[in-house]
Amino acid sequence: MSLAAGPGRGHVTVGQLPDELNLVVEKHISYIQDLDTRRDELEYHLTEHLRTGGIYWGLTALHLLGRPDALPREGLIEYVLSCLHDNGGFGAAPGHDAHILYTGYSVQILTMIDGFDELEKKMPDCNGKIAAFVASLQQPDGRFAGDEWGETDTRFLFSAFYTLSLLGYMPHQHPNEPPIIDVSAATAHIKACRNFDGAFGVAPGAESHSGQVFTCCGALAIAGELDSYLGEVGKDRLGAWLSERQLPSGGLNGRPEKLVDVCYSWWVMSSLAMIGRLHWIDKAKLTAFILQSQDPEEGGIADRPGDMVDVFHTVFGIAGLSLIGYPGLVEVDPA
Amino acid sequence: MASHGIPRVSGGTPDKSEQAREKEQKQIEQYKALEKSVVERVRSKDYSNDTFQATSQLLTQNPEYYTIWNYRRLLLQDVFAKEQDRKEQPETKDIEAAEKEGLTPPQREISLLIKEDLQFLVPLLKQYPKCYWIWNHRSWLLGTATRLLPPRNSSELWQSELGLVSKMLSLDSRNFHGWGYRREVVAEIERLSASSMVEKEFGYTTKMIQTNLSNFSAWHYRSQLIPRLLSERQADSEARRAFSDAEFELITKALYTDPYDQSLWFYHGYLMSTLNPANAQAPPILDPCTNAERLHYLEQEIENVKDMLDGAEDCKYIYQSLLELSERYLEVEAGNKVVISQEMMAWLIELRKIDPLRVGRWRDLEVKLKF
Predict the structure, then answer these.
(1) What values do phi and psi take at A152, rounded to 5?
(2) Which of A195, A196, A243 minimises the CB distance to B361?
(3) Three state DSSP letters for chain B
(4) Do B270 and A196 touch (CB under 8 A)?
């Protein structure tokens, strides 16, 4: 069994939508359930390198929609374990190389479906091996590489932190043992990615970007340094930058003078939540924007109203709604 | 995330014709067969040119397939190692050709292969400018050139990267992969040549801003270059003051052109941050930066920005800027607090009216300012 992160069928046209929109919960559930039945589409095969990501996004969306069991657990476990490498890393699909992003998604999936016993059966001391794989990717300057080929990015650092944290291998979770990663070098790197506008870029010197604000704040939050590092002044500055991401359409963009996109509903909103400034944007308008980006007939959410839906925008739209407190959704932890 | 989830090939519309469906099935079969062949060849350590060509074919169809990029690097590493270990004597013409470029024959082979692969990436990069893996592979090729070739030769390759990245940024002037790669390329050229490019790069940001005022990526890069620029110019306090004035003039002109552009206000905010020692991410332009200087700029900018209201009374950024400037002014000099506070209250009321999206933020500001 596997599951596609493929495109939706989206044939919604803007202007045909009713003014009063509701989240089409059942349609989103069946949209996600049906993703794996689309092997007759070329796109299904061309997106195989995203498969584990797709499962994680789909499963998270289902959890938030209150239907955590909507995908068969056995199939999920079998699939995720089939992506495991001897070095403790996971690939995006069976046979694909191990990468920190897919290792992170796999650990998240196993956490959500409580699959660590099966993991242990497949590979004894697997948690330790996964943690060692993640730790091996840290560079002397504190950054994390995605894999042995050495590309670094704050996304990978955040991925390393949450993976180790879920596995219980962050140094603060084992105060009496030698740390397996250098947390202060990592957070020093994150701090070097901060800009004058209060937000964060992908590397020191890079322009601020909402996605990187999320990964950097998330990493600092896991390390327990977010509040002390930013302080009220820093939170005001970052909060101002984040709140300016909302445009008159209600949607959020990722950087100044860029287009709005549903996925920023999560990155901007969760960052605002982490710094206690969620009320700095208009939640009703954002809700309307996300709902307008749904495909009300086939399910799924797109980047913008009228576009083709996909599972990536579906989960970030739903997670954004959950943070806003949309009725009927399970509450989500911003970090 | 790797692909941002936006499908490049629009697949399943429900009302596909029988013919289209058949065609798609055929495409899937061909794609899966090609994938299978590449994977099997690499697993059986068939590091031949045929395998290499097959990865090219597969990556052209699907540049997001990161494992295949990894395979491609394995294949290249293998060829490079073989070239370096080559025992037999190369032909005279190869030796001569290599000597002409200041290389050994194996180095020349490696250099040709790297150049060829860089060429292979160009059309892919143009078609998929946001694909992390393509940028990443390029960066790996250049890094490998630095490791395996003499500095003069690898330097040439890095130099021509500057042309490529400028081309990419002219196609999409906000592509953050492009800007990040540009910083990487510049840093490496500077390292290899032991000379600074900061003046040239500063000039590049001016050019990009003139082409499109709204390009915050260029404004941001400019802000990053300024501290080094001034230090390399060995600018004294007078030169620094003149520089600061010129930047304020530049941004003020731009703001008059379009006060509704957020990018411009952020750069204005950056210039003001350089006067605020509490913002460690914006090192001072002025040296020394005294309170008298701060007040001078704050007064000047409050007047300038007030003037912008004329004809743009509905522009929220103006009120935001006035509030920030005044708040800062009161931090530095609490003298005429009453007058300033009254004005600030009026701006805040206006702001709440014209910027209802952020009404929660303005309410918090009101509490903070203790009106």
Answers:
(1) -115, 155
(2) A243
(3) CCCCCCCCCCCCCCCCCHHHHHHHHHHHHHHHHHHHHHHHHHHCCCCCHHHHHHHHHHHHHCCCCHHHHHHHHHHHHHHHHHHHHCCCCCCHHHHHHHHHCCCCHHHHHHHHHHHHHHHHHHHHHHHCCCCHHHHHHHHHHHHHHHHHCCHHHHHHHHHHHHHHHHHHHHHCCCCHHHHHHHHHHHHHHHHHHCCCCHHHHHHHHHHHHHHCCCCHHHHHHHHHHHHHHHHHCCCCHHHHHHHHHHHHHHHHHHHHHCCCCHHHHHHHHHHHHCCCCCCCCCCCCCCCCCHHHHHHHHHHHHHHHHHHCCCCCCCHHHHHHHHHHHHHHHHHCCCCHHHHHHHHHHHHHHHHHHCHHHHHHHHHHHHHHCC
(4) yes
Which of B14, B61, B180 lies at the smallest CB-CB distance from A202?
A: B180
Q: Is residue A9 part of a domain?
A: no
Chain A interface, best mutation among B16, B25, B55, B66, by max A CB count within 10 A: B66
Residue B265 contacts residue B256 (beta carbons within 8 Å): no
Query: Is residue A312 predicted with pLDDT exceeding 90?
Result: yes
For A128, the domain range is 14-173+181-324
Q: Is B146 on the interface with A (CB under 8 A)?
A: no
* Residue A335 forms part of a structural domain: no
- In a domain? residue A18: yes
Nearest CB among B4, B8, B278 relative to A233 is that of B278
What average pLDDT does this structure show over A223-237?
A: 97
Measure in Å the smallest separation between the Cα of B310 and chain A Cα atoms. Answer: 23
Residues in chain A within 8 Å Cβ distance of B359: 282
ipTM here: 0.93
Nearest chain A residue to B356 by CA distance is A282
CATH number at residue A188: 1.50.10.20
How much is the average pLDDT of A10-36? Answer: 75
Number of domains chain A contains: 1
Distance of CA B171 to the CA centre of its chain: 13
Point out the residue among A195, A257, A281 whose CB comes nearest to the CB of B357. A281
Q: Does B338 touch chain A (CB under 8 A)?
A: no
Contact B214 A257 (CB under 8 A): yes
Contact A46 B273 (CB under 8 A): no
Does A199 reside within a domain? yes
Q: Do B2 and A49 touch (CB under 8 A)?
A: yes
B12/A38 touch (CB, cutoff 8 Å), yes or no: yes
Nearest CB among B3, B220, B282 relative to A50 is that of B3
When pLDDT is cut at 50, 70 and 90, the band that residue B1 belongs to is very low
pLDDT above 90 (res B337): no
Just give the CATH number of B244-371. Answer: 1.25.40.120
Q: Which residues of A touch B262 (CB under 8 A)?
A: 244, 256-257
Contact A206 B73 (CB under 8 A): no
Does residue B323 have a pLDDT over 60? yes
Q: What is the pTM of this model?
A: 0.94
CB pair distance less than 8 Å for A91 and B67: yes
Least confident range of A16-20, A326-330, B72-76, B87-91: A16-20
> Average pLDDT for residues B10-37, to the nearest whole number?
84
Q: How far is B230 from chain A (nearest CA, A)?
A: 17
